[in-house]
């Protein structure tokens, strides 16, 4: 019955997703249940979205209460939840001004526009952007233009002009691309989709120095690696290297569609003005209620400290697995965004894991990506390892 429903639904949907043959029904904590009642331990979290897991009662109550009041006004009017969410987000992100969007891709678009408007306002004539090879920033034309993987770009060319690609973690590669037309450098402090590659301390500090020396803006894409996932509120904070603009989404709303781009006061002064950018639904009361409630829970429950603790345990267990099996060639990551690279097809392992009641996803190459809800426990990590070991050795 379920399979027939899925097939019928697919007839009406544009086929752009390679969906797994699972029809999910509900979730509780770090577990998901399909329409047949099968239970899955979730180490994907909706691709790093559901940091608080599923069915968090406080978040549900806050959203229900907001639905009863107001879901949408347009941004021609002020509403309390937007102001509260912005203040809380700036406090934990270290930024000064924030603009709410509906997704991470839209946040990247806003960041790129802000960088070019900054250069335009300063009358520098700059427009070029240096991005990183192996990166991923979204699916819109602008976001694809700065995504450093050819398979995402080629079918949609010509794309945004003036984009150059440097080698990640190679400062000389970046320096070689800087010109008097460069207005920004965009990078992920930890590349997620690209295979779980953290930036080195030297690279982050070097990018900041290059930008400071040449009056170039540094943009950090924190959409996947931010909001506590690396063991810090946002990944750049571990390095002590503050960007001029940063993007965020995914876990800031715990499943409610919301993103944001934020910036320093100086960038705000010289970039976006009234009418330069907008979003009909961005920053709506429901989304902002999700953001402010998620932040409140994170702070009260010390989620970031918890990630440091259980993230270290996950690293240890994955390292043990890598030492045990030669076909696991490397473990990479920080906190609760981890990856193991395999010498066998990662996609096959994902399918076998589903049979074991474990949801995991891949990243570039033969990399298994682990991005569980941030409330995961050591006991549940042990449960995952047991299921994963059976999947990788089947």
Mean pLDDT, nearest integer? 96
Helix count, per DSSP? 15
CATH architecture of the largest domain: 3-Layer(aba) Sandwich
By CATH reckoning, the class of the largest domain would read Alpha Beta
Q: Which regions have little confidence, pLDDT < 50, spanning 5+ residues?
A: none
In terms of DSSP E residues, the strand content is: 15-25%
Helix content: 40-55%
Radius of gyration from CA coordinates: 21 Å
CATH topology of the largest domain: Aspartate Aminotransferase, domain 2
Alpha-carbon distance between the two ends: 29 Å
Task: Walk me through the structure.
The protein has 394 residues and is an alpha/beta fold. It folds into 2 domains: 2-55 and 302-393, Aspartate Aminotransferase, domain 1, CATH 3.90.1150.10; 70-300, Aspartate Aminotransferase, domain 2, CATH 3.40.640. The chain is built from 15 helices and 17 strands. The protein has helices spanning 2-10, 45-48, 57-69, 80-93, 104-121, 141-145, 150-153, 171-175, 201-214, 236-239, 265-270, 285-300, 303-324, 346-355, 378-393; strands at residues 24-28, 31-34, 39-42, 97-101, 128-132, 163-166, 182-187, 190-191, 197-198, 217-221, 245-248, 259-263, 328-334, 337-342, 358-359, 361-363, 367-370. It has a 7-stranded mixed sheet, with helices on both faces. The protein has a 4-stranded mixed sheet with strand order 1-2-3-15. A 4-stranded antiparallel sheet has the order 13-14-17-16, with helices on one face. A hairpin with a 4-residue loop joins strand 2 and strand 3 (39-42). Helix 14 (346-355) packs across helix 15 (378-393). The longest helix has 22 residues, at 303-324. It is globular, with a radius of gyration of 21 Å. The mean pLDDT is 96.
């Amino acid at each position: 019955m379920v399979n027939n429903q899925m097939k019928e639904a697919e007839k009406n949907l544009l086929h752009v997703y390679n969906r797994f043959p699972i029809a999910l029904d509900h979730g509780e904590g770090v577990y998901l249940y399909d329409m047949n009642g099968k239970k899955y331990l979730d180490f994907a979290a909706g691709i790093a979205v559901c940091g608080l897991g599923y069915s968090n009662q406080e978040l549900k109550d806050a959203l229900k209460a907001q639905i009863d009041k107001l879901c949408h006004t347009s941004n021609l009017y002020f509403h309390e939840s937007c102001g509260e969410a912005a203040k809380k987000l700036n406090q934990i992100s270290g930024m000064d001004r924030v603009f709410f969007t509906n997704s991470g891709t839209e946040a990247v678009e806003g960041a790129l526009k802000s960088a070019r408007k900054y250069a335009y306002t300063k009358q520098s004539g700059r427009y070029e952007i240096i991005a990183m090879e192996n990166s991923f920033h979204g699916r819109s034309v602008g976001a694809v233009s700065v995504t450093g993987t050819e398979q995402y770009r080629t079918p949609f060319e010509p794309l945004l002009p003036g984009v150059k690609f440097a080698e990640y973690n190679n400062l000389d590669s970046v320096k070689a691309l800087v010109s008097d037309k460069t207005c920004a450098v965009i990078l992920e402090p930890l590349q997620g989709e690209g295979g779980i590659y953290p930036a080195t301390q030297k690279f982050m500090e070097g990018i900041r120095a290059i930008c400071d020396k040449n009056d170039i803006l540094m943009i950090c894409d924190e959409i996947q690696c931010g909001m506590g996932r690396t063991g810090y509120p946002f990944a750049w904070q571990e390095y002590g290297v503050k960007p001029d603009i940063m993007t965020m989404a995914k876990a800031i709303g715990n499943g409610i569609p919301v993103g944001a781009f934020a910036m320093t006061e100086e960038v705000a002064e010289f970039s976006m003005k009234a009418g330069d950018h907008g979003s009909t639904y961005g920053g709506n009361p429901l989304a902002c209620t999700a953001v402010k409630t998620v932040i409140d829970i994170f702070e009260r429950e010390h989620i970031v400290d918890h990630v440091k603790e259980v993230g270290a345990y996950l690293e240890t267990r994955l390292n043990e697995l890598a030492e045990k099996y030669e076909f696991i060639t490397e473990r990479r990551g920080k906190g609760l965004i981890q990856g193991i690279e395999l010498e066998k097809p990662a996609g096959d392992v994902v399918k076998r894991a589903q049979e074991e009641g474990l949801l995991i996803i891949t990243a570039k190459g033969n990399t298994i990506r682990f991005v569980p809800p941030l409330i995961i426990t050591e006991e549940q990590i042990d449960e995952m390892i047991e299921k994963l070991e059976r999947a990788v050795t089947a």
